[in-house]
Structure formats: C-alpha cells, structure tokens
Write a structure and sequence with these properties.
The chain is α/β, with parallel strands linked by helices. The protein has a single domain, classed as SGNH hydrolase (Rossmann fold). The strands form two sheets. Strands 1-5-4-6-7-8 form a six-stranded mixed β-sheet, sandwiched between helices. Strands 2-3 form a two-stranded antiparallel sheet. The longest helix has 21 residues. It is globular. The termini are far apart.
Length: about 260
C-alpha cells in the first residue's frame, strides 16, 4: 500500500489534465442503461425434482422454504450492458443455487447505475425487505472515479457489512472485487494508469475487510478483461462474463460441495 500511496501522490500533480481527459472520455463513452425487466424473480423448486451431480441422482424435498437472494450495488448489479434482468448476476446466481441446492430462490435486485459505497448503504437502508440468505455486492468503481477517500471507503464497507449483519445475521455475503481499471482499454493514458493505481488501493482495503469478517467472501473477476467478456461499451461484463461470475461464486463458497 505504501508504494501505491506514493504513486497516487505523484498522480495528484496531474489532476488538472486528468480531469479534462476524464471529461473527454465520458463525452465519447457509449451509454447503456440498466437491463430491462423486473427487479424481482423466483426460481421455483419443481415437485419431486431430481438432479444429477457427479453421476449420482439427488432428490430434492419440496418442504424447504425459498432462499432469499439480494443483489446490491452498482451498474453491474443493475445489469448495465445486458438485455434483461434475467441475465444479471443476481438472476444467474439464483439459477445456479436452484440447480445445486434444489431449493427455490426468491431473488431481488437493488442496483443503481453510478452507485458509490454511500449510495449502496442508502439502497440497503431504504428497503423494507426482511432478512436475506445470500447477498452479492458490487461496489467501488464509482468510488474510484468519484475520488472517494480511503477513510470513507473503509468506513462505508464496514458500515455496509454491519447493516447487512443487523438484518441478515447468517447471510452468505459475497463481494465482487473491483476490476483492475488500469486494464480498461477504452480509457486513454495516463488516465487509465492513474485510475488503475486508485482502484488497486481500494481493492487492497476491500481484501483486508473481507478477510477480517467470517461469512464474507470475495471473488475477483480480473481474468474477464478481454473483449470476449465485455459488453458493447467496453466497461461492463457481458452475458458470458456474468455466467462465469455466478459459477465462480458457487465454487468459492463451496456450494457444490455442501449440496453433495
């Protein structure tokens, strides 16, 4: 972190030129809205459903209560770059959990394009829903571009986790790590490098906080920075990337093993 802090201090001297470059990038960027469709959905458990896993057939019971899944955060959760909310991380994860656990999944999206950590806290505080069993959080990119201080970023993450735990004490919480913004080819240099430095700083703080909390997980979608995984705007994950994220969440939390 010391090295990143020194690099960031140097980058601040370039701020006037970077602000102009940032304005130019926003003006030329392809604008894509959130995914169309309902913000809530239900993956039903079929009666007498049976699933094959590793060559064995597993029968699911129909008496289980639905698991409640919440997608919370920024444009990735809102599905910017995707055609339908059925293709979002939340909906695709609901399908995976339904498949692996044999449970009905009641899912909901609380996502807002441009949301920072403070906005994400507001979104959660404003919902009247009760507890959730699974919560997936995507936040941070807008805190990089909006120059949220490291202190506010850390306080926001801790406050968000605290609020989640007060509502859903036993929920499985999964954060999507910030992307390595220094690899966004749509952003010209030197702005790209500077945003990469700042994103790396916020990534480190998020890693520390996740590691300090039991029942909180994180996946890193860094490997998805290839045109094959990007939406038309060059910034957001496409359907292929979203499917990978949903599968990676299940693998990281060992859902497939716990269902065996």
């Amino acid at each position: 972190m010391l090295r990143l802090s020194l690099l960031w201090g140097f980058a601040l001297m370039l701020m006037p030129a970077l602000l102009i470059q940032g304005w130019w990038v926003r003006k030329r960027a392809i604008r894509m809205g959130p995914a169309d469709g309902p913000s809530r959905g239900f993956a039903a458990e079929e009666k007498n459903q049976s699933r094959k896993r590793d060559g064995a057939t597993v029968s699911s019971e129909t008496t289980n209560q639905p698991l409640k899944l919440l997608g919370l955060g920024d444009s990735v959760i809102a599905g910017v770059g995707l055609a339908s909310t059925e293709l979002t991380v939340t909906a695709r994860l609901a399908d995976r959990l339904n498949q692996y656990l044999g449970r009905a999944i009641d899912w909901r999206i609380l996502g807002e394009d441009g949301a920072k950590i403070s906005d994400t806290q507001r979104l959660l505080a404003a919902t009247e829903s009760g507890s959730f069993d699974w919560i997936v959080v995507s936040v941070g990119v807008n805190d990089v571009t909006g120059l949220t201080s490291l202190v506010r970023w850390q306080q926001g993450l801790l406050g968000l986790i605290s609020e989640i735990r007060s509502r859903s004490s036993h929920a499985t919480v999964v954060f999507l790590q910030l992307p390595p913004m220094g690899r966004f080819e749509m952003i010209p240099q030197p702005l790209r490098a500077v945003l990469g430095i700042r994103a790396a700083m916020l990534r480190q703080v998020l890693t520390w906080i996740v590691e300090a909390h039991r029942g909180v997980w994180m996946i890193d979608p860094s490997r998805l920075f290839d045109p094959a995984y990007m939406a038309e705007d060059g910034y957001h994950p496409n359907e292929t990337a979203v499917d990978w994220i949903a599968s990676e969440i299940c693998e990281t939390v060992n859902v497939t093993e716990s269902a065996s």
